[in-house]
Amino acid sequence: MALICSISNEVPEHPVVSPVSGHVFERRLIEKFISENGTDPMNGEPLGLEQLVEIKVQPTVKPRPPSATSIPAILKALQDEWDACMLHSFTLRQQLQTTRQELSHALYQHDAACRVIARLTKEVTAAREALATLKPQAGIAVPAPSVPAVAQPAAAAEPMEMAAEPGEEGMTEEIIQKLQDKAAVLTAERKKRGKKVPEELMPAENLSNFKQQASHPGLHSASIPGILSMDIHTADTSKILTGGADKNAVVFDKESEQVVCILKGHRQKVNNVLYHPTENLVFTASPDSTIRVWGVPSGQCSNIVQAHEGAVTGISLHATGDYLLSASEDQFWAFSDVRTGRVLTKVTDESSKTSLTCAQFHPDGLIFGTGTDDSQVKIWDLKERTNVANFPGHSGPITAIAFSENGYYLATAADDSMVKLWDLRKLKNFKTIALDERYEDRYEIKSLCFDQSGTYLAVAGSDIRVYLCKQWQELVVMKEHTAPVTSIKFGNHASFLASTSMDRSLKIYGL
Question: At 14, phi and psi to the nearest 5?
């Protein structure tokens, strides 16, 4: 016998009985009736929710509807469900396609916006540079008459191509006389010093005991690691200038271990830096084809020398402190006035047509050397602007050159892992130091540096090595850097060594 709800006349899912009338009801129906009327629906007598008595019965199973009791009906139900799923899937695919199109359009708009921003940023930078200089530079290459050959045992003058700045007199007689007067003074000072070694110079036995005293890894950005160049202020050797792959140059005080100023402005890495020996001026060069002149500690760019159309690969300051030599991948070397930013002369070697990799003034300032991409070291006469000697012998691009303070020796290095020493009086190679014989991999040479007395030669690359000149004895090898060493410099009287590396650190060595 099944229980029947007195209200719905159906089998209740949750049956309860009314003690007032004794009838059975569905709980939800009788509760709703009581909440509205407060009486029993059968006899009208008062009835409360708390008076209802729940009946415990087995759960009833509702019979299946007739439509689900046969196989065809079940198959039709499944087919209807499948059709509904397919329609839903089709709707989802349409929504996905619409979303993809909207995303593609948004990404295109973002890319276009980025391009516009980059172009505007470039235009703003160019406008700022033009505003800073107010001296537009323009060079038109014109063939110059052939220069008479200068007799040399090993080489002769070669045809050159010179470019003069419009409206400039170039290398005037006044400038040439200034260069000659300075060379005469320097030569006289050198003869006065003679061959005597300065008393303050660090002895070789002490230098061979140099150890790392300090390491400064935080001068440049960690996101673009690497310090590519370095120079020390001659008048105040506590001031060290570094150029990094992060497009910045940094002036650092090694005594206070504080950054004096950060020089920002180049659009690409800073691969060459120079500190003016007597003034608070620094020079930076970059593959962005510009050379910048900065004031320290203000950090303001006072001049931009735009002498080249390609990456600037080397710079060297003339002994007067007023003129700058630069070399570039555009195959030209240039001689510029650092006070005005004007290019006084610009010359290329028509016979070779190869990029220049480095440049360095002779201590007297009347000749200088350049390294080329085709393994040649060329010596130039600044007054005549002619190539007066060539030093072949290396294989691979020249990576570094350095003149000794005595003016007699030239050290050169290339990708062949060799350092060659040349006698400028006899124009011949008298010593070759092979550095890959005791090294596991190919030895890289990035920098060469003589100390101010010409007694020691430092070689930097895969590690740091210091040699005693004349005997060419290896005094010390330092391997504290964890990446190739890019620059090495002596302190005053070789009292300390400073080095920079692609490991982003500046290291100081001493006793």
Answer: -130, 85
Residue 481 vs residues 160, 226, 231, 379: alpha-carbon distances, Å: 42, 12, 18, 33
Q: Residue 24 has which token pair?
A: 């059975």
- Please indicate whether residue 19 or residue 406 has the higher confidence score (pLDDT): 19
Alpha-carbon span 423 to 379, nearest angstrom? 12
The residues that bridge with 477 in the sheet, in sequence order, are 465
Contact 44, 33 (CB under 8 A): no
Tally of CB atoms within 10 A around 133? 17
d(CA 259, CA 240): 10
Please state the pTM of the whole predicted model: 0.66
For residues 73 and 52, is the Cβ–Cβ distance under 8 A?
no
Structure tokens that stand for 175 in this block: 């400038």
Cβ atoms of 314 and 357 closer than 8 Å: yes
**CB neighbourhood size of 7 (10 A):** 17
Q: Tally the residues of the chain.
A: 511
Residues 416-465 pLDDT 10s: 888 999 998 888 899 998 887 566 677 889 999 999 888 899 999 889 99
Q: Which two tokens stand for residue 56?
A: 């415990």
